[in-house]
Amino acid sequence: MAYTLYTYPGNPRANCTLIAAELSGIKIETPEIELGKTNKTEEFLALNPLGRVPTLKLPSGAGVFESEAIARYVARLRPEVGLMGATFAEATEVDSWVTLANADLVPAMLPLVWVHLFNLKYDGSAATKAKAAVDRVLQVLDAALLSRTYLAGERVTLADTVMVSVLNLFMTHTLDAKARKAVPNVMRYYNTLTAQPAFAKVLGEIKLCETPLAPAKKEKAAKKEAAAPAAAAAPAAPAAEPKKPKAKGPYDDLPKSSMDLDEWKREYSNNDTREGALPWLWKNLDTEGYSLWHCNYKYNGELEKTFMSANLVTGWFQRCEHLRKYIFGNVLIFGSSGPPGSVEISGVWLFRGQSIPPEWDQEGNDAFYYEWNKLDITKAQDKALVEDYFAWDGKFEGGPTKPFNQGKTFK
Ligand SMILES: N[C@@H](CCC(=O)N[C@@H](CS)C(=O)NCC(=O)O)C(=O)O
């Protein structure tokens, strides 16, 4: 009999265990449950007397309750994987980070995220306190990650599966681009780990937060407070402020282009690249409105596995969703799995405007870890490079040093 984890999809308290299981090669079933029903049955209460999720059912039929105990149980099943830390000192570090995440970040989920997702009663002062707690932990984490790749030791431990699972909720719901920019080391850590296959498989497609969740009935609440200032529990009243003009986006001031990027994407998707799409591009490319760039991963010397490199690219693409209207690219993997330096990542992008997207030169952004070189299609070699990258074949002169392995298109 297999292990069964009762939870609802996306529960950070369960994701940490599911990632640990992926890393350890342990199969865990996650049957669909109806929260409020399944967890109140007699059978369920025999596993967890409080009737809560997550709850783990062991092959013996016994139950394990409390998310932290469940995560530790699974991590201990395969000590050789090292999820509990390789040494006594590392095990203590794992304990510190797991407890910090659970004691300081998990309680903030309810007032900051779940209250909105599940339409619960909003408590302004609880939200303010929770936000301060999250900000403080992020600062501590950012300082710690300045000199580390992982929280404890030199490889992934339970500290990372717990921390990333919890961070993921805030990254996708409350921390907008400005908040993320304030913690570049946390971002590098989060981006690196979520690109790893075990994390990517459990967390699925990640869409970083653009606008933080806000109280559902903010305006009404603000008006009530104006009438009765004594009940000032909710945040200050933004509704009373004059409406600010909408901030300009980085592409808003560009003169209209004669080339329609969507049309190019359709051409590329529906036609043979060399026979149909590229001739269309060379005929329609507006070199004033658009620019072409080659990118080369700065840490190619560290890459060992093709599938992990491909995952790095997938993670990057997932975080580019908001730029889809303005960019198109092909990022390719070259070489084959082997010792460090066996694999290379490089690509060619087409961008609206004459520079790489503004946020891409900031530390923590995936693009920051690439060298960028603007291409000039009046030069035969640059033009051929664009063609090879877009067609996924050719000589790639001036590009990679290893043979093509696989590619990914952002369109
Ligand atoms: N301390 C527990 C908290 C678990 C918990 O509160 N789970 C919630 C869902 S996230 C639940 O089961 N609520 C339903 C209920 O209490 O009836 C743990 O970490 O496992």
Automatic annotation (TrEMBL):
Keywords noted in UniProt: Elongation factor, Protein biosynthesis
Biased composition (Basic and acidic residues): 241-255
UniProt-annotated stretches for the region Disordered: 232-255
One GO cellular component term: cytoplasm
GST C-terminal domain boundaries: 87-213
Chain ranges of the EF-1-gamma C-terminal domain: 247-411
GO MF, one example: translation elongation factor activity
InterPro entries, alphabetized: EF-GSTs (IPR050802), EF1B_G_C (IPR001662), EF1B_G_C_sf (IPR036433), Glutathione-S-Trfase_C-like (IPR010987), Glutathione-S-Trfase_C_sf (IPR036282), Glutathione_S-Trfase (IPR040079), Glutathione_S-Trfase_N (IPR004045), GST_C (IPR004046)
SUPFAM superfamilies: eEF1-gamma domain (SSF89942), GST C-terminal domain-like (SSF47616), Thioredoxin-like (SSF52833)
SMART domains per UniProt: EF1G
Pfam hit, one: EF1G
The keyword Nucleotide-binding is assigned to this record: no
Domain (GST N-terminal) ranges: 1-82
Protein name as catalogued: Elongation factor 1-gamma
Organism expressing this protein natively: Porphyra umbilicalis
